[in-house]
């Protein structure tokens, strides 16, 4: 999908990192038409949130199921095959070759799009070294992007800091999905590789994943609307 084919509103993915299905449904009602794309990750998925994938999809919203799978290839393939039936648009797996190969096999001919998590946005070069890697963030992100493309993955999760370099490697063949988004003046929290929504779009990101700056805002709808306006402005 070329950037021009993505509806501007779909570019904001709000992470429903909330403690219960009730809290998530209240947030979805509050955000109303301002948000069309939601992410369900560990917190909500392990709190009974998986049935919300089909419910949201049936109501016309898109869902990014962020399970960040990583296991032996056979287990990943079988897990992804089960996940194809949930109704999500995107699923994350970590960008290890065996994992991505298993995910592509398990996805089969379903419409589920597979995203490879390159290097988590809470990591910098020192964190990678402490985890035993010899490459720095940009080298590892780029190496993993090349592997992800060769193995038939549909998109990459990285910080917007790497979006420009990744676009040069994968063109518009893969979606660039970027967390680590912080509107000007918002708390960084545990994120280390961050950009504002406008800068991320200008850097070439297709989708922006935003959690706390929206769901922990005093007025989540106003926060989402402000990000949507920034995206539209940056798209020019
Ligand atoms: O795969 C992800 O979505 C992800 C990858 C990554 O490298 N960094 C990252 O923050 N995320 C997710 O994106 C969301 C960001 O949330 P906030 O930091 O609250 O905006 C969280 O749900 C993270 O799990």
Automatic annotation (TrEMBL):
Annotated metabolic or biological route of this protein: Pyrimidine metabolism; UMP biosynthesis via de novo pathway; UMP from orotate: step 2/2
Protein name as annotated: Orotidine 5'-phosphate decarboxylase
Function: Catalyzes the decarboxylation of orotidine 5'-monophosphate (OMP) to uridine 5'-monophosphate (UMP).
A molecular function (GO) term: orotidine-5'-phosphate decarboxylase activity
Orotidine 5'-phosphate decarboxylase domain location: 11-227
Provenance organism: Bradyrhizobium guangdongense
Gene Ontology, cellular component aspect: cytosol
Gene Ontology biological process: 'de novo' pyrimidine nucleobase biosynthetic process; 'de novo' UMP biosynthetic process
